[in-house]
Design brief:
single chain; about 300 residues; alpha+beta; Fructose-1,6-Bisphosphatase, Chain A, domain 1; D-Maltodextrin-Binding Protein, domain 2; 2 domains; about 30% helix; globular
């Protein structure tokens, strides 16, 4: 045990290294050429070899180091012996040099729930839209998302052979978010980011009600939140029950740490305790600024259709 460091900061420092390892696995599967695609519930709900290996790597690495954690991963995998080469036992020392927010300094391992999406944006991954892909590790305490790590395996992948590939963003509420440059959409502009592959009438009605100047349709919840914090979009609008807790836990932390807000379409905070249902059944509404403006424009017909 590393003495002197709180459980939370040790967990975040480990999750950073573990997310980087998962990003390496995601890149390796593409490079090897066999994605091993299987359909889960529909042609847009896919799982690949990268989803499976990255989840085994993340969950096993976390469980070895923090055996009392509750870990909830997207993929329903059989329990089997995990290859040692999938295990990451490192930690990002820079995180351990940061102070733990005082409200979290006495948290015990068994009080934390970790939500894992080993490969967010799987459909886009299979179609070669690699900058949509993220690895998400979110950490919750008393039902609230308090820390998160997002790895982008293919950040910079179009920047040429000399560019460093991949990036990891992390944050803790009360401390901040790190690994990116915060930018905002110009004042008065309403640029909406929404789903690329899971649209329906509710989604399009809700987006139209925002009176957008532009609409971006991209894959991955992690990717959409990154668009908000990097000034590419002003709000993420998804009026549908397709999104799950492992999609939103880590991204919500990064957004909240820089003053943004993520709720359902009714304006309710999302809950992340271990007993909660996995589906975000009342959709997702997120923005870096002016959340009340976007929440006020959600049509009553959309609210009535999406029950929390």
């Amino acid at each position: 045990m590393a003495s002197g460091h709180t459980v939370l900061m040790r967990l975040v420092a480990s999750a950073y290294s573990i997310a980087q390892k998962a990003g390496t696995i995601v890149r390796r599967v593409i490079a090897e050429g066999d994605l091993g695609i299987v359909e889960k519930t529909s042609p847009t709900d896919l799982q690949t070899k990268a989803d499976r290996l990255a989840q085994m790597s993340i969950c096993s690495s976390l469980a070895r180091k923090f055996p009392k954690l509750t870990i909830i991963g997207e993929e329903d995998l059989p329990s089997e012996e995990v290859d040692q080469e999938l295990i990451e036992d490192g930690q990002w020392e820079e995180i351990l040099r940061k102070p733990c927010p005082s409200q979290y300094s006495t948290i015990k391992e068994e009080d934390l729930v970790v939500w894992v999406d080993p490969l967010d944006g799987t459909k886009e991954y299979t179609e070669g839209l690699l900058d949509n892909v993220t690895v998400l590790i979110g950490i919750a305490y008393e039902g609230k998302a308090i820390a998160g790590v997002i790895n982008q395996p293919y950040y910079n992948y179009q920047a040429g052979p000399g560019a460093a590939l991949g990036r990891t963003i992390w944050g803790v509420l009360g401390l901040g978010a790190f690994g990116f440059q915060l930018k905002e959409v110009p004042a008065g502009k309403h640029i909406i980011t929404t789903t690329r592959s899971h649209s329906n009438k509710l989604v399009t009605d809700c987006v139209a009600a925002m009176n957008p100047d532009d609409v971006l349709r991209v894959g991955g919840a992690g990717n959409k939140i990154i668009q908000l914090i990097e000034g590419k979009a002003s709000a993420y609008v998804f009026a549908s029950p397709g999104c799950k807790k492992w999609d939103t836990c880590a991204p919500e932390v990064i957004l909240h740490a820089v003053g943004g807000k993520l709720t359902d379409v009714h304006g309710n905070a999302l809950q992340y305790d271990k007993e909660v249902k996995h589906m975000n059944s009342a959709g997702v509404l997120a923005s870096l600024r002016n959340h009340d403006y976007y929440a006020s424009r959600v049509p009553e017909s959309v609210k009535n259709a999406l029950v929390p």
